[in-house]
């Protein structure tokens, strides 16, 4: 639409399109414009914060795109025809053109050869080879894992798990990871194979490329190290039961059992006596396990708790004072009290305290009621300020 046409019409009768920045004289032409590809293209440019294009530029882009698509289709068709290959086993011939192969199938010579081959009992096979390229075999999961293990960088127990530093000894490496990366081993007092644990963690990082804390998989050793350092995941996941069972082979919790120190009570018997004892096993009381309470009740009556609740079992609660010393301490506090001395050596009981502070309680309560009353009156009268302020008109 030309600018002159826009000027000849009143402004109130114009219909605009903000996306394309054009003006229409009728609502019907505006609705038709909203359904065009030009309008949709400008809407996408508006979302991308780009200026709109005119209809001439859009048509030129559209023609250029159609020309490129046609050229690409022609090149694909030519490539398909160039790679065509077909074999006729009845005539023992190979054709590299679709037209030549189609004409051969319609020829009388081919029909006679095909009938002869069928009569003699030979199998007729037609094979259309679209591409001569050989598809490589896809390796299975086990082969991929074996290949990754071969090319992966093996971390030694003297290599840091979170950076590229290497140390002369295992202890120096542990001190470095503890001080620099804040790495710690949970329940280290029950750890029996620290070297095996660090080696397992190194394989988990270098071969599996998995984070030790959140188990997020990455593509390389450098990326998983960067993830653990940036996220603060330089620690072992040791919260759920699955996490604890993953490292169970490196720990030994037998020393934490209540009967672990009673080794002197064990009696060693011969094999014959052991066989006789097996016959009387049915007469022994059965061990009861309560899964809900997470406790194991032994025949002796002792209760073994689950190690997930160890924080509660390790509590050292302070016993209740029932000795005479606590009573003497309370008496000393009363004697040292200033109010006790002011009262002439008479202990102030609850009745004395109530009579002494009752007037203060009453005055405080009346003051609070008065303030609440003033607030309600002020809200109703819309006068909460207590000073005069001149109204400036």
Automatic annotation (TrEMBL):
Pfam families: zf-C2H2_2, zf-C2H2_jaz. Keywords: Cytoplasm, Metal-binding, Repeat, Ribosome biogenesis, Zinc, Zinc-finger. One of its GO terms (cellular component) is preribosome, large subunit precursor. SMART domains: ZnF_C2H2, ZnF_U1. It is found in: Cytoplasm. One of its GO terms (biological process) is ribosomal large subunit biogenesis. GO terms for molecular function: nucleic acid binding; zinc ion binding. Residues 88-110, 160-181 form the C2H2-type domain. It comes from the Eukaryota. PANTHER family: CYTOPLASMIC 60S SUBUNIT BIOGENESIS FACTOR ZNF622, ZINC FINGER PROTEIN 622. Belongs to the REI1 family. This is C2H2-type domain-containing protein.
């Amino acid at each position: 639409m030309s600018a002159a046409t826009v000027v000849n019409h009143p402004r109130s009768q114009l219909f605009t399109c903000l996306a394309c920045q054009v003006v229409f004289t009728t609502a019907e032409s505006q609705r038709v414009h909203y359904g065009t590809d030009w309008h949709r293209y400008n809407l996408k440019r508006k979302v991308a914060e780009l200026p709109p294009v005119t209809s001439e530029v859009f048509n030129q882009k559209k023609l250029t795109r159609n020309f490129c698509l046609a050229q690409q289709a022609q090149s694909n068709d030519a490539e398909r025809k160039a790679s065509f290959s077909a074999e006729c086993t009845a005539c023992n011939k190979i054709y590299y053109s679709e037209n030549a192969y189609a004409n051969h199938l319609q020829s009388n010579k081919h029909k006679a050869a095909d009938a002869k081959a069928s009569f003699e009992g030979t199998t007729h096979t037609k094979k259309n080879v679209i591409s001569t390229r050989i598809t490589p075999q896809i390796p299975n999961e086990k082969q991929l894992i074996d290949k990754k293990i071969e090319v992966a960088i093996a971390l030694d127990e003297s290599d840091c798990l979170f950076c590229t530093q290497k140390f002369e000894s295992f202890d120096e490496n542990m001190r470095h990871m503890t001080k620099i990366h804040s790495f710690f081993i949970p329940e280290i007092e029950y750890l029996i194979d620290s070297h095996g644990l660090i080696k397992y963690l190194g394989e988990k990082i270098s071969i599996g490329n998995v984070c030790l804390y959140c188990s997020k998989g990455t593509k390389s050793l450098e990326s998983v190290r960067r993830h653990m350092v940036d996220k603060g995941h330089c620690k072992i996941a040791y919260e759920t039961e699955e996490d604890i069972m993953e490292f169970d082979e490196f720990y030994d919790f037998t020393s934490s059992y209540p009967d672990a120190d009673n080794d002197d009570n064990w009696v060693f018997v011969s094999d014959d006596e052991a066989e006789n004892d097996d016959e009387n096993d049915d007469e022994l009381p059965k061990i009861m396990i309560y899964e809900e309470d997470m406790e194991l009740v032994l025949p002796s009556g002792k209760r073994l708790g689950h190690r997930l609740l160890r924080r509660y079992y390790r509590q050292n609660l302070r016993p209740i004072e029932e000795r005479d010393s606590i009573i003497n301490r309370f008496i000393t506090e009363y004697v040292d009290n200033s109010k006790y001395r002011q009262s002439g050596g008479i202990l102030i009981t609850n009745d004395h305290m109530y009579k002494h502070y009752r007037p203060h309680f009453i005055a405080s309560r009346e003051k609070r009621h008065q303030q609440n009353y003033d607030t309600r009156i002020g809200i109703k009268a819309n006068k909460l300020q207590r000073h005069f302020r001149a109204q400036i008109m």
